[in-house]
Structures are given as C-alpha cells and as structure tokens.
Amino acid sequence: ALSETRDELDVARRNLDERQSTRDALQHQLEQSRQDHESRTRQLQDSIERASRVAEQTREEADPSARELAGVRARLARTTRLTSAMRTLDEATSLGDILDNLAHLACQESGRTAGVLVNGQKLRGWRALGFEGDPAIVGSDFEPAEAGVVGQAVRLGIGQQHRNGDSSHLPSFAADGGPRDAIALPVQVGGSVIAGLYADAARTDRPEDPEWLDTIDAMTKHAGRVLEAMTVRQAAALWTPRHAARS
User: Fold this and answer.
1) Which residue has the higher pLDDT, 92 or 240?
2) pLDDT tens column, 118-167
3) CA nearest to 98, candidates 90, 110, 109
4) Comparing 121 with 242, which gets the higher pLDDT?
5) In the prediction, which pLDDT does 205 show?
6) CA 172 to CA 92: how far, in whole Å?
7) What is the DSSP string of the chain?
8) 115 has which bridge partners?
9) Which residues contact 183 (CB under 8 A, 6 or more apart)?
10) CB count, 10 Å around CB of 163?
11) DSSP string, 167-187
12) Three-state SS sequence of 76-107
C-alpha cells in the first residue's frame, strides 16, 4: 500500500510539474503578447504624431497660398466689375444716364449711394439708393456747408473720406445706420464740379482701407471723362454746320 501510495504521489507530482510548466508557458506567452501590444501601440501613436505634424506643416504651408489665391481671385473679380462698369458708363448717351449708372454701380460696391447736382450755390439731391425709409434726398436742396463730406468734396473738388467715427462730418441723410465708412467724390467736367457722389458701407474691424473706396473713385473719375468727351462731341456737332456754312 505504501508503494502504491508513493507511485500515486509521484504521478501527482509529475502532473503538478506539467501543469506548472504549462502555466509558466502561458504566462510567458501572455507577457509576450502584452509587450507586442504595447510596442504596436507605441508605433501607432508615433505614426499618428508624425502624420499630425506633417498635416500641420502642410496646412501652415498651404494657408498662405490659399490666402494669396483668394486675394488674387478677389482682385480679379473687382477688376472685372470695374471693367464692366466703365463699359456701362461708356455706353451712356446723356448726363442723366451717366449719373444714374454711376450711382447704381457704386451702390453695388458699397451698399448706399446718393448723387447730388450742383445747383448754383446749393446742392440738389439726384439719386438715393440703399437708404431705409425716406431720407428726403431726391429733389431736396442742401447747403454745401451742411452736407458734410459731400459739400467739402464739391467745394474743394477733391474726394473726401469719413473713417474716424465722427458722425458730424456725414451729411444729414446718412447720419443713421451705425458706424459707417464713407466717401464723397466730385464729378468734374473741364475742371468744374457739376455733381457729387456719396457712398458708404457699414464699418468693419479690418484696419486696412475698404477695397470699394478705390473702385468707386475709379468709376467716378471715368464718369467725368465720359462727360467731358460727350461735351466735346456735342460742341463739335454744334460748331461744324456753322463752320461749313461760313466756308
């Protein structure tokens, strides 16, 4: 019985040793799997970080190019509109058509425009576009001293800007609507101011000059040149028959 017990004990020990060996092998495999997983996780994190750095660098390199491209497109669109506006002014056949077209074209660039005619020592409202309600511009007479930047532009023959937030320099019909960036330009024919154009838009937070200021200034100067050419043609048409008759 003792011998049988010893044999059974040896078998049990061998089984225990086998199980211990199996357990050690499993633990080793588990530890190896854990290490492999951690290694792959670190590699994946490194790859993500590298990809993020590359993406950020690409974005930083692309942003200036994108902004430059957007600026070029904006300038191209502005040039296209200005070219079309000048063509429209060239096709006008009368003073009224030219001033009407100028007011509408300027309103498309800024948002609000008003045209005035020089009527002796006063200014008479000609057109008003974009103003809410009835600002009583068309048909009204204004003293140049009371017309703010418009009166100054007509009196001095030089364009005037309003950008300092001082509403006292704006004409009375444009005093509402919050802070505005405004421009007033004279329409000159042969060195004489015959009309004035006022345009304004809601002020932005950008420190640079609004782009529409230069565009409207170019339109107004071209309108004056078109009027001068029209005046010359009309004078030539009146002079030619009398000259021919004297010959």
Assistant:
1) 92
2) 988 899 998 999 988 766 788 888 888 878 889 999 999 999 988 765 65
3) 90
4) 121
5) 65
6) 31
7) -HHHHHHHHHHHHHHHHHHHHHHHHHHHHHHHHHHHHHHHHHHHHHHHHHHHHHHHHHHHHHHHHHHHHHHHHHHHHHHHHHHHHHHHHHT--SHHHHHHHHHHHHHHHHSEEEEEEEETTEEEEEEEES-SS----BT-EE-GGGSHHHHHHHHHTS-EEE-SS-GGGS-GGGS-SSSEEEEEEEEEETTEEEEEEEEEEE--S-SSPPHHHHHHHHHHHHHHHHHHHHHHHHHHHHHHHHHHHH-
8) 127, 197
9) 110, 149, 159, 160, 161, 162, 198, 199, 200, 213, 216, 217
10) 15
11) GGGS-GGGS-SSSEEEEEEEE
12) HHHHHHHHHHHHHHHCCCCHHHHHHHHHHHHH
Of 179, 185, 182, nearest to 152 by C-alpha is 185
Burial class (CB in 10 A: 0-12, 13-18, 19+), 124: middle
Average pLDDT of 213-228?
92
Q: Which string of b and e fits 95-120 if b means at least 16 CB within 10 Å?
A: beebbbbbbebbbebbbbbbbbbbee
Specify the pLDDT at position 15: 85
pLDDT at 207: 57
The amino acid that residue 153 corresponds to is: A
Q: What are phi and psi of 191, to 5 degrees?
A: 85, -5
Residue 245 has pLDDT above 50, yes or no: no
Give yes or no for a contact between 149 and 162, defined as CB atoms under 8 angstroms apart: yes
pLDDT digits (tens, 9 = 90+) for 35-73: 888 888 888 888 888 888 888 877 777 677 677 777 777
